[in-house]
Amino acid sequence: MAYGASLSHAASLRLSSTIYAESLSLSSSSSTLLMGAPLTFSSSTPSGQESNFRRPLMVISKKISGLEEAMRIRRERELQSRNPIKRRPPLRRGKVSARLPVPDHIRNPPYVGSNVLPELSKEHQFHDSEGIARMRAACELAASVLDYAGTLVRPSITTDEIDKAVHQMIIDAGAYPSPLGYGGFPKSVCTSVNECMCHGIPDSRQLQDGDIINIDVTVYLNGYHGDTSKTFLCGDVHDALKRLVKVTEECLERGIAVCKDGASFKKIGKRISEHAEKYGYGVVERFVGHGVGTIFHSEPIILHHRNDKPGFMMEGQTFTIEPILTMGSIQCRTWEDNWTTLTADGSPAAQFEHTIFITKTVPHTVTNAEPIIVLNGRLQPFNKRAFLLELETKGSLNQANSKTLVSY
Question: What per-residue confidence (pLDDT) applies to 2?
């Protein structure tokens, strides 16, 4: 679940981004001059300088490769303009049903019972072996729930129905749905459709053929939060939207790839921005990743755009990376519910999220583990096709006597 940066903080980030963009533009100009400069050769060049002769050719070759990439992207945009996305009706809020109950025996997070939004904790969260085992259990459950939620995405289903199914699966596993009651949030999962950047509240609106929907799942299990999200395709989705979703997931993967003990946090935003810009997408600055563990939202703040924020990753640390990409403006507007946040111009947005555990060498994506379920008393990996067949045969998750296994 993305944490919203303060307006003053976001403004300072935009300023630093502007300064960076100006310096980048100067650098690009220099490169253009170099690429356009004529090469002169002398027949009297000594053979001993042959290596110096080769070096400019290598530079020119690199620039031509960059030109080919730019031409490829231009061709894609021309094809997109010939087959533009049909303007969809703007998102409208449906009816929000009553808050779902949680059994008394399930442990609640400390913020439950207050409608006040908790402040971002300044504590960086590190974990010993027992803490990591508990984090893994929470994250594996979150991953299983998210996979299950994805199987429900189809035209005509309401986001409220998805919320009810997610809620039931979480409490059946003995966990608490972290969004429920967080700062007054009324539901157990966030469902963000089309132009909704994040924090969409499930309601009576039916999904339409061609929609995209981000489902953001966080569970609180044995005192630890596991946080993950994914954007799903609903029915027959336009190729341009499919590309947005694909590139957003690739941006997350590139951000994860730079993570390791001692790496700079700002590298995450650099890698994500570089990839998004190749396709002309904007990277939202207003919402950020965050530390996660026994506390839902804490330092470090993870910026997904280019930035100069100081700080380095450390072994044993856990945090989320959750970039939001848009096809238009990165500015946003929030509904009166103080949660649902849409792109200012109504352009589509997509988001992916994983919880990351930092090790000495490579990052471990704890919400990307193979989900495990118990189906009719048999322990087995989550298999989407088999799971759907079982549900179709038995009628529902509960009737199939299915239960998520949580072990550590």
Answer: 76
pLDDT, tens digit, for every residue of 230-261? 999 999 999 999 999 999 999 999 999 999 99
In angstroms, what CA-CA distances link 280 with 68, 81, 250? 16, 13, 14
For residue 364, the cross-strand partners are 357
Instruction: Say how far apart CA 328 and CA 205 lie, in whole Å.
Output: 24
One DSSP character per residue, 362-405 reads S-EEGGGSPPEEEETTEEEE--HHHHHHHHHHHSSTTTTT-EE-
> For 307-317, b where at least 16 C-beta lie within 10 A, e where not — what string?
bebeeebeebb
User: What integer pLDDT is reported at residue 64 of this predicted model?
Assistant: 44
State phi, psi for 333 to the nearest 5 degrees.
-140, 145
Sequence-distant (6+) residues with CB within 8 A of 353 are 2, 216, 227, 228, 229, 230, 252, 289, 320, 321, 322, 367
- Within the chain, which residues score under 70 in pLDDT? 5-84, 362-364, 366-408
The answer to whether the beta carbons of residues 255 and 381 sit under 8 Å apart is: no
Question: Which is nearest to 222 in space by CA: 128, 143, 138?
Answer: 138
Contact 161, 337 (CB under 8 A): no
Structure tokens at 9: 């903080």
Dihedrals φ, ψ of 32, to 5°?
Answer: -65, -40
pTM listed for this prediction = 0.74
Q: Which residue, 227, 274, 236, 280, is CA-closest to 255?
A: 274
Contact of 383 with 120, CB cutoff 8 Å: no
Residue 85 and residue 241 in contact, taking contact as beta carbons nearer than 8 Å: yes
Q: How far apart are CA 385 and CA 335, in angstroms?
A: 38
**How far out from the chain centre does Cα 327 lie?**
15
E strand or H helix at 25: helix 7-36
